[in-house]
Amino acid sequence: MTVGEKKGMNPYLAGALGGILAVVSLWLTGKYFGASTSFVRIAGMFERIFAPERVAKLEYFIKEAPKVEWQVMFIVGVLVGSLIAAIAAKEFCFKILPDLWEKKFGKGNLKRLIVAFIGGIIAIWGARLADGCPSGHGLSGLMQLAVSGFVALICFFIGGIVVARIIYKGGK
Amino acid sequence: MNINLYGFITGIVFGILLQRSRVIRYDKQLGALLLKDMTIVKFMLSMVLTGVIGVYLLNDLGIAKLSIKPMIIGAVVFGGLLFGIGWGLLGYCPATSLGALGEGRLDALSGILGMILGAGIFAEAYPWVKKNLLTIGDYGKITLPGITGINHWIIIITFLVLGLLLFRWFEKKGL
Questions:
Q1: Closest chain A residue to the Cα of B44, Cα to Cα
Q2: Cβ–Cβ contact B49 with A under 8 A
Q3: Closest CA–CA distance from residue A108 to any residue of chain B (Å)
Q4: Are residues B89 and A3, on separate chains, in Cβ contact within 8 Å?
């Protein structure tokens, strides 16, 4: 695909292709896109190494069993697909600090890594409580005209906009 | 073909689209939250507007079933706001964090480890969550056509028109 080195593929086109992909996938497998349940399954797989009895007992790990299934393979595929695309376009590089972050907070990797880690803990809590993330609620929920999808997506953005404003207050 | 293999291949294609369109980048995610760069909103909404037609077509033809998540105020509103706070800090959502790691972004890896730890803690807290939050305002698995009684295709067409108007506005404003 011929895309500008810096600008990237047109997001409308990429989104439309993503929509077709989601529908074809639904047709073939009956599954809707989602991601956050897999983090529970993966957490369970790790925890099982240290405390198998605990994992066997917890209701949530019985509900979302620690096993590799369609969605876990889907998110692993996202990683692999992005890796392939990045290598093919010679864009792959190890990097800790996003440009926007570095402009505001300067160099200093630890701060960014800690904020990302804490952000991850909070984000997955929210996603599991809401029973979906921007993929499960935002994409799959809206595609089905689910009320929960619209409400969740609005709440995701309200929370995110407030935090982004606090982090980047005073211009940049 | 094995269903997990379908998942893997679908993920690879989706990962390529996410990487090529840049929506997995922190700068794009924060750009949207700072209301300065609507790339991820364009991607998401364009995907939804395409997908909704196919999903309801397959559903009408009896080929696929809907899988609606329940509208529970205590879960979706609190969880949604909490997710947003975490998203603003992390700068990636669960799916895009994997894509960002694929490009070599190591802050995304830190976020992924946080999400795995957080998921483990959530599993511990689930009995409390179920008792105290999942019981607040449970409206069940409701859809827009269901609650309004309007034919889904009329809602889909309205949705398409509103989406396209929004896209036109984005382009006019250079967002």
A1: A15
A2: yes
A3: 12
A4: no
Residues of B in contact with A26 (CB under 8 A): 54-55, 58, 64
Interface check for B147 against chain A (CB to CB < 8 A): the answer is yes
- For position B29, what pLDDT does the model report? 97
CA atoms of B75 and B136, how far apart (whole Å): 8
- Identity of the residue in B15, B50, B89 whose CB atom sits nearest the CB atom of A77: B15
**Residue B136 — φ and ψ, nearest 5°?**
-85, 115
Structure tokens at B87: 């998203």
Q: Per-residue confidence at B132, pLDDT binned at 50, 70, 90? A: very high
Per-residue pLDDT at A7: 77
The Cα of A67 is separated from the nearest Cα of chain B by a number of Å equal to 11
Q: Is A51 on the interface with B (CB under 8 A)?
A: no
CA dist A97 and B59 (Å) reads: 44
> pLDDT digits over A14-49, tens only?
999 999 999 999 999 999 999 999 999 999 999 999
HSE, CB side, 13 Å, CA atoms: give it for residue B15: 30
pLDDT for A3? 41
Q: Report chain B's mean pLDDT, rounded to a whole number.
A: 97
Which are the contacts of B92, defined by CB distance < 8 A and separation ≥ 6?
Answer: B24, B26, B29, B100, B108, B111
Domain ranges (residues) in chain A: 6-94, 96-172
* Predicted local confidence at residue A116, as pLDDT: 98
**% of chain A beyond a pLDDT of 90:** 94
**pLDDT exceeds 90 at position B7:** yes
Q: B129-133 — which CB contacts under 8 Å span 24+ positions?
A: B129/A129, B130/A59, B132/B74, B133/A129, B133/B72, B133/B74, B133/B75, B133/B78
